[in-house]
Amino acid sequence: MIAIDTVLVKLASRCNLDCGYCYVYNMGDDGWKGQPKRMAPDVVRALAAGLAELRAAQGTDFSVVFHGGEPLLAGPGRFAETCGLLRRALPRTCGLHLQTNGLLLSDAVLATCAEHEVGISISVDGPADVHDRHRPDKAGRGSHSRVMEGIRRLRAHPAAATLFSGVLAVIDLAADPGEVYDSLKDTGAPGIDFLYRDGNHDVLPVGKAGPLSTEYGAWMCRLLDVYLRDRHPVPVRVLDDMLKLLLGGVSRKEGVGLEAYGILVVDTDGSVNKNDTLKSAFGNADRFAVEWSVATHDLRQIVGSAEFAAYHRAQRPSAPACLACPDLKVCGGGMPAHRWSTRNGFANPSVFCADQQRLIDAMRSHLARNRLAA
Fold first, then answer.
1. How far apart are CA 38 and CA 255, in angstroms?
2. Is the CB of residue 11 less than 8 Å from the CB of residue 83?
3. Domains, the chain
4. Which of 13, 118, 194, 365 is the most exposed place for a label (fewest CB within 10 A)?
C-alpha cells in the first residue's frame, strides 16, 4: 500500500473569484459543473471514517488540505463541523490546513482554525495591480483589498503565529519579481511559495514563446537575486527546496526533486481522484478509470490498487531526455501536468525544462561564488 502524504478535500466546488489562470474553471475542464456545490455532512462523515482507517493502516501521518474552489464557501458552520469530525477521527499529529483566497476569513472561521489547529495559507499574487490583473471577483472587481483585509484579520488573531502558514503566488511575467517579493514579505507571512502558470506542450503557458524559451526561468533568476540579497528573508519554498537539493538535501513538496508523494483528492460528491492539477492537461485527466468514492469504497483498498500505483509512478518522469539528465535529482521532471502532449502523453520533459535549467545554473553560480559545493 502506498503511503499517503496529502489529502486534498474539496469542501466547495465553486469559487467567489474568477482567476484567469485557474486550472479548475478556466482551462477547459468542466467537471466541476456536475459536482455538488458543497460537501454534504454524510460525505464528510464517510471521509473522516475512511481517513481514520487509512491512517491506522499505513501507520504514518498525512496532511488534510481544505481546497476548492474556495473551501470557505462551505460556510462557517459546515467548516467547523468538518474540522471537528476530522480532529476526532485522526491523531492530532495529522495536520489540517486551509488554502483560501482570504475573502471569507471571518472571526468565526479563525476561531474554528484556532480550536482545531488549522494552518492557513492565502493566495495573493503580489501588489494590488499585479494581483487584481488576474484575480477579480465574479463581477470583474479587483479582490486585493479584501484579501489584505483577511490577512490583517488573521494577523490580529491571538493565535496568528501558529495559524498563518504562508502565502502562495502565481507568477506574472509582466510583474517585477522584486516588487512582488517585497509585497508578499510585507504581508507578514512566515513563508512564500510561487507557482508557474499552468500549460503543456500543446497549450503553452502564458508568456512562453516555445518549449525551449526561458521567460519563466529568467523571472525566477531575478527573484533568486533579490532573495539572496535580502539580509532578513522570508523563506521561499521552491527556491529553498532547489538549493537544498543541489546541496544534497531533500525537497518538502511535489514539483521538484525525486520524492514521490502520495496524494489523494476527494471532491464534494465524495469521489476519489488524482491530483487535480492534471485538469489543465485535458478534460477528466484527473479521473481514475474506476469510479471510487469515500461513501462506497475503502480508502485502504484504493491506495493499494494497481491503478493507484500507476498514478503514483506517473509522478516520476519517463522521457528519455529526463532520465539521462544529470539535473533530474533537482528538477524532478516538474509537475506531470506540464509534461503533457497529445503526441506523447506525459512522456515528455516539462514544458518548463529550459526554464528550470536556467534557474539551476544560476543557483550553481551563486553557490560557487559562496564556495559551497553543488
1. 29
2. no
3. 6-360 (3.20.20.70)
4. 365
